[in-house]
Amino acid sequence: MMYLTHEMSRLALTPARMLASGHSKILRHPLNPWSRVPGTRSIASALNVFGDLTRRYPKPSFNLDTTVCDGETVLVNETIVKRKPFCQLKHFQRNVDRPDDPKLLIVAPLSGHYASLLKGTVETMLPGHDVYITDWRDASMVPISEGNFGLDDYIDYVIDFINHIGPDTHVLAVCQPVVPVLAATALMAQDNHPSAPRSLALMSGPVDGRVDPTEPCELAKKHKLSWFKRNLIHTVPAPYPGTMRKVYPGFLQLTGFINMNFDRHLDAYRGLFRSIRDDDAEEVTRHREFYDEYLAVMDLPDAYYLETIERVFQEFHLARGCFKHRGRLVDPSAIEKTALMTIEGEKDDISSPGQTRAAHKLCTNIPDDRRAHHLQPGVGHYGTFNGRRWRDEIAPKLQKFIRSA
């Protein structure tokens, strides 16, 4: 009922949002004499902010039409090279002949936001790499006839995508996927798979959530799995294609994200109000570019979400050496030929420093000269893969690592 109530509430707000938008335009119109009355601009600005807070945010596009290779601007064509029910493999094909550039698969998190959250990551890596990314689908858009999707399926998808790209692929896992991607790499090593990754970079994820537990880690341990199933799993209503599918709704995940930094988001919208009132177009654009991405969320399949809570955040299977994939024990020590790099942010409040670095203790047979760790000072979770510090300080080290591998 919660999902249906949420949808009905959004529909009920539609007329008010449309009315607010119309009034805002009228109040700000230069031919309207009231537009010059003190306080009118503030009212119009408040109506604009109301519209931003109540509208739907669709799946964002990457909009990476060009990149620069060796000082030359080249076209980039986004293509879907493999489609699966819950994910599609996207390729950013550059219109340039650079056969020596490393093939890079970026595994985006399936944790509420779309893969386009990593637009800055892709944009930075494009000039020197042949980039692919996992573009996960909103579970509400997947018909129930396609079956369910769990953590083992996630690992299968990763192996399938790496195999599709082929040998000598480098893999970057950002946030949530560090555990299933490390497991997939270990399984490929155990099988002596010819397409096992040339290098693996794990960024800001919970390889071992027992290390300096953050608020999300504490929440997972605080409640039994039955509590998550009872309170956070809901049924997709009509008319979505995934009607009757059990999911962890994106709007609940977004609520959790916002509550972790509520004051910061409140200040951001106060700033938006002032920027609209003062006609600061640059600040308005900057705010909306970020929140158009941040507020666009997707639903997660219930099996995948609950299994991740149980196996990764409550029982720490991989860190404890008892992680299994379809009944088979996953052995990270089997990884010998894949180079390993871990990246963390000093101020990360989602995956604290040490949680990702724990991968090195599991991958005991990787030579020391084929492993690296980087702790980035002064950045939080988002700053490890987007923004100035990512572009200027983290990415160059990652690029050098990939080339050396």
TrEMBL record:
<protein>
    <submittedName>
        <fullName>Polyhydroxyalkanoate depolymerase</fullName>
    </submittedName>
</protein>
<dbReference type="InterPro" id="IPR009656">
    <property type="entry name" value="PHB_depo_C"/>
</dbReference>
<dbReference type="InterPro" id="IPR010915">
    <property type="entry name" value="PHB_depoly_PhaZ"/>
</dbReference>
<dbReference type="InterPro" id="IPR051321">
    <property type="entry name" value="PHA/PHB_synthase"/>
</dbReference>
<dbReference type="InterPro" id="IPR029058">
    <property type="entry name" value="AB_hydrolase_fold"/>
</dbReference>
<dbReference type="Pfam" id="PF06850">
    <property type="entry name" value="PHB_depo_C"/>
</dbReference>
<feature type="domain" description="PHB de-polymerase C-terminal">
    <location>
        <begin position="205"/>
        <end position="404"/>
    </location>
</feature>
